[in-house]
Structures are given as structure tokens and as C-alpha cells.
Amino acid sequence: MKINAPFVEKILTSFIREETTKFHYSKGILGLSGGLDSSVCAFLAAKALKPNNVFALILPYGKSYSEDVKDAQEVSKLLGVPSKIIDISPMVDTYFSRHPTKSRIARGNKMARERMSILYDFSARKRALVLGTSNKTELLIGYGTIHGDMACAINPLGDLYKTQIRQLAIHLGVPEKIQKKIPTAGLWTRQTDEGEIGFSYDEIDKILFQLVDKRKSKEEIISQGFKKENVEKLIHLIKNSEFKRKLPPIPKISARTVGHDFLFPYDREK
Amino acid sequence: MKVALVQFSPHLGDVKKNLNLHFEYIEKAKKKNVDLLVFPELSLTGYTLKDFVEEVAITPEENQLIEKLKAQSRRISLVFGFAEEKEKGVFYNSAAFLSGGKILHIHRKVFLPTYGMFEEAKFFAQGKNFNTFSTPYGKAGMMICRDFLTYGASYLLFAGGAEIIIVISAAPGRGVSGEDYYETSHMWEVMGEVISRFSTAFLIYCNRVGFEDGKHFAGGSFIFNPAGELLAKASYIDKDFLIQDINLSDIRETRKKWPYKRDDKPEVILEALKRIVSKYED
Questions:
Q1: Whether pTM exceeds 0.80
Q2: Which terminus, N or C, of chain A has the lesser number of Cβ atoms within 10 Å?
Q3: DSSP 3-state assignment of B38?
Q4: Which of B9, B179, B210 is the closest to A4 by Cβ?
Q5: Cα–Cα distance between B171 and B164 in angstroms, integer?
Q6: Which of 1.10.3720.10, 3.40.50.880, 2.40.10.120, 3.40.50.620 is the CATH number of A5-181?
């Protein structure tokens, strides 16, 4: 699972630059949380497009993550990337005061979608392409909010496992504090990804790598020494999140149907 | 003779823009006295065409663009890739060899990768032949990308007498755990060396670069001489324009030392293949 980080940097910066130009944009925009993935994406975008052509939105809910806000600001300052802080609590609180819920997940998802909504609004205002920050681990196990943090125009990090993003972060010089941060989806305070899933990213990624990249069967992976319940949990998470990785199905009733046999590349030049 | 490879990134679905790019490279090559200029697979159209195929496909006999390229080929021989409408509504992933104002040969891709990220057989008809043809530089044969990863295809060109094998490609890179190039680039080079040695022929491989729908074409175009020696290699993943002098007398020199061509027994292989195929149970 080791990556050649300088080579990967070159690939991903070319990708960001090429795709942005292809869609006739010169700028990129992203949500900066102060965590590892969005910081790495900001570093790549700043190198690919030049710092002035990247816009970072820092979108905290109230004061609950003031440390993260500071870290996000530090990244934007370090890179020379302009940024703006927008507190999403007024919008989110107004909604939940009228439609209360006790579900932490429902609140977290709403927040993720509030952030998406602001990102896309600023994407139009700034004529900047939304850069995604979902990594391969999250995409595979469905650890993201559909139409929330998963929404983007292009996703430079989507084929890198979390542990590979850490390798890239070291190479890019992302501040050590951020490199070592405990990963969280930020759905609620003190939530951690690993706490929720039940085992470490190191192990998650190793199992996913065997399952997905190496196409090994459940039995083969267990025989390598991984815990049965961990392997089964990941297989379950992958199966249950397929809908997050696909466009919704359309019942085919005509001769030619979007998604079925009206098939064009995404990179359709204008 | 002087060979040049254009390792570029065509505009997806925009034939006009791509034709202009072809002319730019032709001008550049003419200034350097290049004899043979090679473009990558589907160089006139881009690779990930899907339903674009029917919009961008060309029928060479009645096409203005091809006439323009044919006119250019009076001064410089050209190999390029395009979507071909050979018969009405039947589309091929094709490679053309133009020289002396004429189309000397069209190869239609036989092995259309249709698995994983590839879906060529959904949109293209399958070619049926690996023919060699005479050129001002000797007998040549062409393959398109995946054709070259098929054991028997290179042999057919060898048996047909190819002295120059030209492979045009749109090969995406995979594997980033090693050196400063994709792991798959290494595979292509190994194949290039092996086939040039087996064939005691020049092996010219022209790949493209750039992204299409996230697929990253890996570049790394190369030329091997008939003795399996690497003569030139383009950069990985970056655009490049590779010019190389090749010495056609190397074919004769190598074949004196390694008489694979003299010792080949196509009739034995043909009969053996017939026996294998006749035993198929389904």
C-alpha cells in the first residue's frame, strides 16, 4: 500500500489542472475542515492552480470545533489560499428548531448538506469548480453523506486510501498536527471514525486493499490473519453503501434513456 | 530514416481541433525532415467516445479531412488513429498509414478491451485481420493498443514479413507504488523489447497522455531496434515529441545473427492450431 508520493502528487495536480481547464474554469473551491483530507486537497489544488485560484470555505457549526477552524485557517495562510469562514449554525438551528430530532446522524447529515449547499453557491459566485475530498476508504465503506460531503465536480483523492493520504500529506508538508489528527466525520462532537467503525484505519485499509485491489475472497483474507468480524463488517458496509457510489436507477421505458443507453463521457468538451 | 512520435492529448470528440493539432505536428516534423510521423490511438477523436462514435466517425474514401492528410503525406508518411465508418452504421477503431498521397493500409482493431474500465466492444465492431503492407521503408504492420498484448497478433505480423511494427495506443496507467512511472508502463516496455527481439523488427510504440473521465493515459512511447535495444523513450505522463533516426539496415544485420525469420515455420503452427481448434468442445 506504499505509494510513490512525489509521483502521485504529479498525477493529481495534473488531474486538477487539466479537468479545471477542460470545463473552462480556472479556479477551484473546497471546504476546508482542518482535517487531513481537505488539507491535502488544498495543498494539491494550490500547487495545481496557484494559491490565488483556490478558494477555501471554512464552515464550522457554531464554536464546537474552534481548534479545527484554527487549523484550517493555518492551512489557508500557509498556502496563501484565500478563505472565508461561514458559521452554519443559524441555518441548521433554525431548521431543527422547527423540525427537531434526537438523531445525531440526522443532524450531522443536515450539516454536511448545509455545507454542500454553501459550497455550490460559492462555486457559482466565484466561478470555481468544487473539488471533492472523499478518500477511497470512505467511498468504499459509505462513510460520507450522500449529496453532502460526497458532492463535488471532481474528486482528486478518490483512489487513495486514508493511510495513503497520510503518506501524501507527509510528502506535501501538511502541518504535523493535522497529519496526526484523529480522523472524524465531524457529525457530532468527539466522534471519531475509528471509534465508530470499531478498528483502526490501518487495519480497515489493509482489509479493503485485499478485498478490492487484490480481489481476494473473505476466506482468503481471514486466513491471512485478519479478524473474521472485522472483515465481515467491512463487506457489510461496502454492500450497504452501493447507492452512494451510483447515480439513481431510472426505469427504462423509452428507446434511449439517460444512464442506460444515452452514454457520453463526463469530460465532454464544450 | 527519421521517425517521430506525437505523445499528445487529443480533444475528446472534437475532430476539427484535433485535425489542426495534427497539422501543427506535421509542420513541426517536416521542419525536422521526419520521414514517418506517428500519432496515438484515436488521435483524431480522443478515446472515451462512447456514443460520440457515430458523430465523429469518418469514411476515408469520401472524407475531406482525410484528403487533407493524404495531401500532407506526399511529403511525410503518417500514421494516425480514428473512428472509421467502414460500412453504413458499422464503426471501427482504426489506424491508417498514409504515404505518397495515398492510404497504404488501414488496420481495424481486432482485440477490443471490454472489461473493467474498458468498454470498446460496446461501441466498435471488431476488425478481423493483421496484414502487412509495403511502404517506402520496407514491410510494415500495425496494431492498436490491446492488439499488442495479444500473443498471436505480433506473430501474424512477423509471419507476414513485417520489418517495422507500429503500435498506436491509448493505454491508461495503473499502479503507483514503485518508480516515477506507472507500473503498467513497465509492462509495455517489456512487451516492446520482447516483441522486437522475437520479430527481429523495429518496434514503434506511440501512446498518448492526458486524462479522460479520470483515466490517465501513461505516455512512455518508445522505439526498439530489431535487436531489442531501446533507441528512444518519451517522457511518462507528460506531452512529448520524440524524434529518432533509425537505421533500416539493422533488420538485415540482426537477422544474420538471429535467424528467427529464416527458421520460422508458419505451416507447422497453422496445422498445430487447426488441430487445437478442432478439439474445442464448445
A1: yes
A2: C
A3: strand
A4: B179
A5: 21
A6: 3.40.50.620
Helix (H) or strand (E) holding B142: strand B138-144
Amino acid letter for position B51: D
Q: Do the Cβ atoms of A4 and B177 come within 8 Å?
A: yes
Q: What is the pLDDT of residue A80?
A: 98
Contact predicate A228/A221, CB 8 Å: no
pLDDT over threshold 90, residue A185:
no
CB A42 within 8 Å of CB A79: yes
> Residue type for A192, please?
T
The C-alpha cell 516483441 sits at B195
Extents of the domains making up chain B: 2-278
User: Given the C-alpha cell 439517460, which residue does it identify?
Assistant: A258
B112: cell is 477490443
Average pLDDT, integer, range A178-195: 82
> How many angstroms separate the CA atoms of B269 and B271, rounded?
6
Cβ partners under 8 Å of residue B99, min gap 6: B73, B77, B78, B135, B136
The three cell numbers locating residue A46: 494550490
For B131-141, letters b (16+ CB in 10 Å) and e give ebbebebbbbb
Cell of A199: 478498528
Going by C-beta distance under 8 Å and a sequence separation of 6 or more, which residues neighbour residue A154?
A: A15, A16, A19, A20, A129, A131, A132
DSSP letter for A211, please.
I
User: What pLDDT, on a 0 to 100 scale, did the predictor assign at position A186?
Assistant: 73
Query: Could you give the CA distance from residue A174 to residue A163 in angstroms, rounded to a whole number?
Result: 14
Residues A195-210 as b/e (b if ≥16 CB within 10 A, e otherwise) read: eebebebebbbbbbbb
Q: Determine, for residues B213 and A1 on separate chains, whether the beta-carbon distance falls below 8 Å.
A: no
Please give, rounded to a whole number of angstroms, the shortest distance from the CA of B51 to a CA of chain A.
5
